[in-house]
Amino acid sequence: MCLAAAKLDWISENRMQKMLSQCWKITIVSAISNVTKRKKLCIQIKNSIENIYMEVIKTAIDGVLIIEPKVFADARGYFFESFSQREFDEKVAPILGHTINFVQDNESMSSYGVMRGLHFQCPPFTQSKLVRCVKGAVLDVAVDIRKDSTTYGKHVAVELTEDNHRQFFVPRGFAHGFAVLSETAVFQYKCDNFYAPQADGGISIIDDSLGIDWRIPTDKALLSEKDTKHALLKDFDSPFDINVNLY
Questions:
Q1: Whole-number Cα distances in Å, 91 to 39, 130, 145
Q2: Which residue ranges does the chain devote to CATH 2.60.120.10?
Q3: What is the C-alpha separation between 21 and 219, in angstroms, rounded?
Q4: What is the pLDDT of residues 195-237, one digit of tens each?
């Protein structure tokens, strides 16, 4: 009952029935005398329960992932697990081929039209990021800047909002940025390496050659002075190479 009982209060009627079904199966497990059969059934139940809480969606670029937590909502509000290292290890690490250990959490607040990026940290301080928008809406983008990559200069864009609760995983070797689509936005991200200002890098977020539709009119775009000075992709000498393991 453990996992079901702990979150039962936050589960919609439909999901409650699913969880109670798993609890019923657990009762059956205890009645099975064959140890091997009991272990197999326990694993099946464990997997079916865990699969309820997080869905991982692959994108057009390997390693760039969208994560959708399962939200349990009712008339009072909602509940969801925003991050579980165990779930991340079990569902994301097999796709990436390695584990990710996050060491720093950051938060920013921005107004409509703000564009931040496209940022990265140079080796050996390069970072993976797991990002989400907890208030408002942003268009979040990851650009592949690994030399010799078949997707070099290509990007993945995803809208992150306080309502869809989506998260976006940006691997090392990518430039990252976002544009604020709502009146204000609160943006949170986890990093697997500490901030190192001496390793700051970037490419121009307004480089038309990247083909990114930021959904912000040019006269409404707000950039920092620093972000206006990043090189265009054609003039950029990337510190990343797909043939070099960044992890």
A1: 21, 14, 25
A2: 58-241
A3: 55
A4: 999 999 999 999 999 999 999 998 999 999 999 999 999 999 9
Show which residues are catalytic.
119, 189
Type of residue at 6 = A
Considering the segment(s) 58-241 as one domain, its CATH architecture is Sandwich (2.60)
pLDDT tens digits for range 54-86: 899 999 999 999 999 999 999 999 999 999 999
∠ CA 44-45-48 to the nearest 5 degrees? 85
Is residue 18 a contact partner of residue 50, using CB atoms and an 8 Å limit? no
Q: Name the packing angle between helices 35-50 and 13-30 (round to 10°).
A: 170
Cα 20 to chain centroid distance, Å, stands at 30
- Nearest partner of 212 among 128, 132, 162, 154, judged by Cα: 154
